[in-house]
Amino acid sequence: MPTTFLDARETATVRHVVDLCATSSAEPDAVFEVLDDLDALIGCDGVAFNAMDTPGRRHRHAQLIASGQRELASPAELEAADHEPFWRWYWQCAPCSLPDRLETSVAVSISDFYTVREWAQHRMSEVLGRLSDELLVSYPDAPGSTRRLLFARESGARFEERERFLITLLMPHVGSLLARTLAPRPRPEDTLTDRQREVLRLVRIGMANKQIAHALNISTGTVRKHLENIYERLDIHSRTEAVRAARLDDHPPQTSHPG
C-alpha cells in the first residue's frame, strides 16, 4: 500500500476521535460526535452506526448523520420499520453478509466486489438507494450479531486506499466506544449502596427516621441524607416511590443496637 500522509487538519481530527473514544461516556451524543469527525475525515454523504441481529432479521440500534442532520431511531421505530426488502437480498449481497460469513472485524466496500455496472444491476442497490459506493466496517459481538459503521457515497469517486487506511487506523478505538454504547445499562436501583438499601427496607416496614436511626445506630440527620441521595439517584420524590422503585429483596436488614 502506498505511503499515506496526513495533513495537519486530518491529524488533529484523528487525535480528536481517539480522545473521544477513550474518554467519552457511552451515550448516543458521544457517538454522534465521533460520526461527525469520521464524516469529515473520510468524505462521504452519510455515516451510520447500526447494530444487527441477523438470525432475528432485525436492527438493534440505528443512528445516522446525513446532510448535517442527526437521527437516532427509537426501539419502537426499529420494531416498526420494514426491513424485509433488505433481508430478502442480504445473503446475495457480498459486502453486507461478509461480516456474518467471516465472524470477524472487516473493512470492506461495495467496490471490492462489484463494478459500477454490476452494482447498478444488483437488487440490493435498489434497497440501499443506488449508492455509488459504501464502506462497511464491522465488529462481531456474537455469531449473527454485529456492530457496523457504514460510510455512504451517493455519487462521485468510490472509496480508495486512503479512506481504508484512515478507518483501519481508527477501527479499534471506535469499536471500543461502540461496544460500550450498546452494553446493558445498570438500572438506577442497582447502584444503591448496601446502607441505602438497609434504610429503604426499614422505610418499607413503616419505620420513621428516628426509629431507623436507632435501628442502624446512626443519626437522624444521616438517615435524612441517605433518603435525599436515594431520591436523587432514583429520580423520585417520596418514601413510597423509593420503596417501589428500588425492587428490594426480602433479606432482613442488618441492624445494630447501641449498648
Walk me through the structure.
The protein is an alpha+beta fold and 259 residues long. Helices cover 49% and strands 17% of the residues. It contains twelve helices and six strands. A six-stranded antiparallel sheet has the order 3-2-1-6-5-4, sandwiched between helices. α1 packs parallel to α8, α9 crosses α12 and α10 packs across α11. The C terminus is likely disordered.
Structural features:
Arc Repressor Mutant, subunit A, 259 residues, Beta-Lactamase, disordered C terminus, 6 strands, 6-stranded antiparallel beta sheet, alpha+beta, elongated
Per-chain topology:
Blueprint: H1 8-23, H2 28-42, E1 46-53, E2 58-66, E3 69-72, H3 75-80, H4 84-88, H5 94-102, E4 106-109, H6 116-121, H7 123-127, E5 133-142, E6 145-153, H8 161-182, H9 194-204, H10 209-216, H11 220-234, H12 239-246
Antiparallel strand pairs: 1-2, 1-6, 2-3, 4-5, 5-6
Helix pairs in contact: 1-2, 1-8, 2-8, 9-11, 9-12, 10-11, 11-12
Percentage of residues in helical conformation: 40-55%
Shape by Cα distribution:
elongated
Structural class: alpha+beta
Mean pLDDT, as a whole number? 87
- Alpha-carbon distance between the two ends: 78 Å
In terms of DSSP E residues, the strand content is 15-25%
- How is the CATH topology of the largest domain named? Beta-Lactamase
Q: How many helical elements?
A: 12
Please provide the count of β strands: 6
Oligomer: single chain
The largest sheet, given as strand count, sense and whether it forms a barrel, is: 6 strands, antiparallel
